[in-house]
Amino acid sequence: MTRHVRIRPLDPLQDAELIHPWVTHPKAAFWMMRDHRLQDVEREYMAIAANPHHDAFIGSVDGVPAFLMERYDPAKAELVGLYEPEPGDVGMHFLVAPVAPGDTPVHGFTRTVITAVMRELFADPATARVVVEPDVRNTAVHALNAAVGFVPEREIEKPEKTALLSFCTRAQFETAVGVSV
Predict the structure, then answer these.
(1) CB under 8 Å to 14, separation ≥6 — which residues?
(2) Which of 40, 72, 150, 158 could be stapled to 36 by a disulfide with Cβ–Cβ 3.0 to 4.6 Å?
(3) CB within 8 Å of 55: residues ≥ 6 apart
(4) Cα dihedral sign for 110, 92, 95, 14?
């Protein structure tokens, strides 16, 4: 079944109430916002909106808000001084909304989301490589990253975590998912 995915800019004041239960859910532990109040989430995303090197987006699947995506310039945010950035590098974070109690998880849904996120990033011809730095303990996201073409390079120490620095070129993504972007 083909799913319709739409990605739009996040509005911190309008969307904080929507994403607050996502980022504070136990399954979002690696998002590091478990104890955030609604106002904290608003503040966090207002800071992202004010940062010229970091953007946040809401993704909908079949018309239902379903994921959070962040795009950043790793030469100016998040990874400054932790690796040697190359022209065309784009940093990315994504978080899939938790399944509502009583709902049955949809097999392959998260892979659909990360594939859509990667297509969105590579839709910009200036994007040559996507950079991620998930927590080294987040084995589920490492498997998803590998499924769309990411190759781990090394562990890095960030102030908030030990991260697995990984890269995915356009060609690696296209080979992994079997499409051209």
Answers:
(1) none
(2) 40
(3) 9, 48, 49, 70, 71, 72
(4) negative
